[in-house]
Design a protein that fits this description.
By secondary structure, the chain is α+β, with helices and mostly antiparallel strands. The protein has helices at residues 6-14, 21-32, 42-50, 56-68, 87-101, 121-126, 164-170, 173-190, 198-216, 222-226, 232-246, 252-261, and strands at residues 2-3, 40-41, 72-77, 80-85, 111-115, 133-136, 139-142, 152-156, 192-193. The strands form three sheets. It has a four-stranded antiparallel β-sheet. It has a three-stranded antiparallel β-sheet with strand order 2-4-3. A two-stranded parallel sheet has the order 1-9. A hairpin with a 2-residue loop joins strand 6 and strand 7 (139-142).
């Protein structure tokens, strides 16, 4: 394997898509804080986001927004601050952990819903769960529970093949392109040997995880249940999970020690 500057890999992955600072903070706290009682110091958070090209002013704005929205709480410890997920932030993080880390059951039953002629397209969509995918004005694929209605015909979906027009509805071009870009960047990371350096390794882990999380939460389980194993999201998942295994979860105490030493 070729050894490269870790910051080069961090920059390459960071360029895969837009980075919203508040969302990065949620990714970091959700990954590093392994219990509802755990805290992360402000200096460690600052050190990690700075390696993603985020300055302290942008971080302060993001932390203020997350406190305002009830996602995190902060406290002063001497001259320094520390941050923790609130009960709401922890619950929201736990609710999607299986999707993000690949431990969720993807063998859910998929249904095809067809709306009756008396329903408008908007009324039909209101009856569907969040991650159902509309195929036309009054037809959709999904998993989970549909609100009861005499105007909706539900049928178990077990096709021999998914036609290309349905694939396009399930995976719009923009989503497929972003998954492919992430796969390419993570593939380059995996082709490199990873030098020591806890903060840099952690920043690389987190930027990979952030872009994966950002994309994975844009859809539900229906794509994995219906599409072949080589669809762009599945390819990205295999590479991301390999990278997270190599860039193993760090001990927060070690990050704190390294930052304290400067």
């Amino acid at each position: 394997m070729q050894t490269v500057d870790l910051q080069e890999d961090i920059n390459a992955v960071a360029a895969c898509g837009p980075i919203k600072v508040w969302s990065v903070v949620v990714t970091i706290l959700g990954d590093l804080l392994q219990s509802e009682e755990a805290w992360l110091s402000g200096p460690v958070l600052d050190a990690l986001v700075s390696r993603l090209g985020i300055n302290n002013q942008a971080l302060r704005v993001a932390v203020h927004r997350l406190r305002r929205d009830g996602w995190i709480t902060s406290e002063k410890r001497g001259r320094l601050s520390a941050h923790q997920l609130t009960a709401k932030g922890w619950a929201e993080t736990e609710a999607v952990r299986g999707q993000i880390y690949g431990t969720a059951d993807t063998a859910e039953a998929v249904w095809l819903a067809v709306g009756g002629p008396n329903l408008t397209a908007a009324e039909f969509l209101e009856l569907l769960p969040t991650h159902a995918v509309a195929l036309s004005a009054r037809s959709a694929l999904g998993t989970g529970t549909v609100r009861p209605s005499e105007e909706v015909l539900l049928s178990k979906f077990t096709p021999e093949r998914v036609p290309e027009w349905a694939v396009t509805a399930l995976v719009p071009h923009e989503l497929a392109t972003e998954y492919d870009a992430l796969s390419e960047a993570v593939g380059r990371v995996l082709a490199h040997s990873t030098p020591e350096g806890t903060l840099e390794r952690t920043a690389l882990r987190l930027v990979i995880l952030h872009h994966w999380r950002r994309l994975r939460l844009r859809h539900g389980a229906v794509q994995d249940a219906v599409l072949p194993s080589d669809w762009p999201g599945a390819r990205a998942q295999r590479l991301v999970m390999q990278a997270l295994t190599r860039l193993e979860w760090p001990e927060v105490a070690e990050l704190e020690r390294q930052v304290a030493l400067g």
